[in-house]
Amino acid sequence: MVRTTLSAAEARRVALAAQGFGRPPSTDVPTRSVNVAIARLGLLQIDSVNVFERSHYLPLFARLGAYDRSTLDRLTLGRTGPYTEYWAHEAAFIPRDDLRLFRWRMDAFRERDAGPTRAEGVARTESVRHELRALLRAEGPMRASAVEHESNVRRGPWWGWSDVKTGLEQMFRWGEVVSAGRSGFERVYALPEQVLPAGFLETAPPRAEAVRDLVRQATRALGVGTRADVADYYRLRADDTATAIAELTAAGELLPVTVEGWRERAWLHPDAAVPRRVRVDAVLSPFDPVVWFRRRAERMYGFHYRIEIYTPAPKRVFGYYVLPVLQDDRLVGRIDLKSDRQRGVLRVRTAWQEPGEHLDPDRLADTLRRTAAWQGLDGLEVTDRGTAAAPLAAALGLALVPHEVTDDADAPAPETATDGD
């Protein structure tokens, strides 16, 4: 039966099933399952914050269970694996073949960077970029920090980029260099012909066709979504997205639906399942597709979410690196986690139940035990801050640890959490 309406609960379950939730977590996850999960998502957003775990590892753990992180490293960090990097949502690992779908974005970035607000910075690095092309051609792929050049000194504060790094990132945006994996989580840059098949980027489809393919992938990953939801997945323009949606709808590849409580029209992918229920216990990365578009998270789950690593410590409400807690089809809480590797402890620095939701502390306790084991940590610790702290500690059989102000001040708020370096 073709669906034309969905209840709010059905829409949540459709979205979570499309994202790969609903299966029991496993401790034996083969490489094939990792690849299938990435294909379902389409991308893994990269983030440099490592207070608990780097973000790109977390979506797979939330969906698959305790997979071997070295499996993902082998697939994503090498020069010739099945995945590469580009600005897809933000900086993200994507299937290598999908890089062609962003050729039009490379051209758009080049055009933007030639504009009046950026032209000065581009002109400043012109000679450096010329030297970098010659260096990469002679020496092969390398990290920005490995380039010996008088301009390879940071500008401004500790997070400032040198002209070498800036030049490489400009060329990366334009497709003049591409990722050749990572070393110590630092991006390795290469000329396209050094890591891609000959003429690979030249075989890219026209912009309209590429956008249509990206919209097709986004709607499959979302299950159901508004035009804004679909556009945000790969950060597409609203008009391009609208055109692609209209074409795919006319071809029967998308189904218009009305979702209870949504003011905007939505589209359902025809392959999307509508489960009667989903059983999920997970903590989510701040950059998980379930929550990365904050307007969608509020509309679907009533979950108002702002990542507070950008907020000065005294003004933080929930904590430094706060992860949403997903139980079944509801976002029921949020917890601030830190992997204290010196002590071998996973620290729950704050734990909160969402107003109007029911957070099951026993289920969250089991989730955190699995999380600590996956991180190779022997113990758990819960501080006394947050509305869910006491019941969570009781479920874990732990005494609460007094919260210290210094717990909120691990590091300065980063300039960006999406450049990956």
Description of the molecule:
- 36% of the residues lie in helices and 17% in strands.
- The chain is built from 15 helices and 15 strands.
- It has a five-stranded mixed beta sheet. A four-stranded mixed beta sheet has the order 1-9-10-8.
- Strand 6 and strand 7 (186-190) form a beta hairpin.
- Helix 5 (103-113) packs across helix 8 (163-174) and helix 7 (126-139) crosses helix 8 (163-174).
- The protein is globular.
- The N and C termini lie far apart (48 Å).
Compact description:
This protein has helices spanning 8-18, 31-41, 58-64, 69-76, 103-113, 119-124, 126-139, 163-174, 192-195, 207-222, 227-233, 238-250, 294-301, 361-374, 389-396, and strands spanning 5-6, 44-45, 83-87, 91-95, 142-143, 178-183, 186-190, 224-226, 255-259, 266-268, 281-283, 322-327, 330-340, 345-353, 379-382. The protein has 421 residues and is an alpha+beta fold.
Topology:
Layout: E1 5-6, H1 8-18, H2 31-41, E2 44-45, H3 58-64, H4 69-76, E3 83-87, E4 91-95, H5 103-113, H6 119-124, H7 126-139, E5 142-143, H8 163-174, E6 178-183, E7 186-190, H9 192-195, H10 207-222, E8 224-226, H11 227-233, H12 238-250, E9 255-259, E10 266-268, E11 281-283, H13 294-301, E12 322-327, E13 330-340, E14 345-353, H14 361-374, E15 379-382, H15 389-396
Parallel strand pairs: 1-9, 14-15
Antiparallel strand pairs: 2-4, 3-4, 5-7, 6-7, 8-10, 9-10, 11-12, 12-13, 13-14
Helix pairs in contact: 5-8, 7-8, 10-11, 10-12, 11-12, 14-15
